[in-house]
Amino acid sequence: MSETLHIVGGGMAGSEAAWQAANMGVDVVIHEMRPHVGTFAHRTGDLAEMVCSNSFRSDDDEQNAVGLLHWEMRAAGGLIMAMADRHRLPAGGALAVDRDPFARSVTAHLMNHPKIIVQHTEITSLPEGGHWIIATGPLTSEGLGQAIAAETGAQALAFFDAIAPIVYHDSIDMSRAWMQSRYDKGDTEEERTAYLNCPMDRDQYEAFIDALLVAEKTEFHEGETAGYFDGCLPIEVMAERGRETLRHGPMKPVGLTNPHQPEIKPWAVVQLRRDNALGTLYNIVGFQTKMKYGAQTSVFRMIPGLENAQFARLGGIHRNTFINSPTLLDAQMRLRTRPHVRFAGQITGVEGYVESAAMGLLAGRLAAAEILGRALPRVPQDSAMGALIHHITGGAEARTFQPMNVNFGLFRPVEGFKGGRRGRIDRYRAYTDRAKAAWSGWLEAQIADDMSFAP
What does the entry list as the binding residues for FAD (predicted)? Predict the structure, then answer.
């Protein structure tokens, strides 16, 4: 029992942690409460189910920090990235995933691994001994959340995460909409036409903003506050910040030409991205919302091309719990008051599928090394992985700690490169070159260590 790694939560982080630890030779038990205990956001009992967007965001490993994180996870033999690549959908320069086959594949790989057992049980307290990783994600159950809050001596921090709606493709009027990735980005025609675009003129946009502002919204429960993560703001909250906010955000019209009216530049454009391999479902990009269902259907049908839209899923909003990691976790992601317990994934204060899986990858390797009596070298801070773990375990300001996506602002500066927009291409390439070298060295050191332990 004491040499088995127990992982609570079978989402992105828990699945990746289990895969990494098992491949290092450690026995793993995944405790996943679904489907016996459900959540309002999940639909299945599959591991690594995607409940919000189906995008892993940019796959550019030379000019984008999340693309660099993709590269590092692939180099480490990550299961999440391998299955994402296997079930990839066209999305311009982004990595979009066919969510159901992806989750089923992750589940099958873990279930079939000889060193992994999956138990569909709910854990409601922090364990007194053994080796554990808590990777319960943003929808941590009430019982376990209360146990974590009691142990840390502070009330759990929370923000609200909003889900974007999904539209059936055959209900979209393609005489008004067209297919094009922004700036025709992509190496193939399929990539260059990965997004479905719905144009608005100025009057349509202004009417849409008016409807957003007066639409009936979901009320918060007593004691809850709307501490939204800025990367996932509901569109009506963005509209409340200024009438032009959406037009300079998810509805920006740049890099697009409407073939139905090529001489007229749209005032704003709503983009939809394919959500499954069949191309039957499209999600409205950046349109997370807390409007009530009736309001959503009427407001979204104001969008040209979506007048008769049928929705496979409407938007929603949920509480997203995370801990104040800079004060609670050490550099090995262990709870300072209970070092046999590690935390991984969104509950640590990283944001996004990729970042969550990345922290699971590290937690799995760190826990397995400890069980095997090996000392892993410190995760290099100049890698994307290192920049994230450094941020959540001490680099962030604890008093104002909020969930964070990976970004180059978390990286140590590279000397000799210009700041600002003009110098960013060379600067970002320097970041990624340095990170790849650092990460490759960290992985190679572990291979050498494995060889030294061989009989």
Answer: 9-14
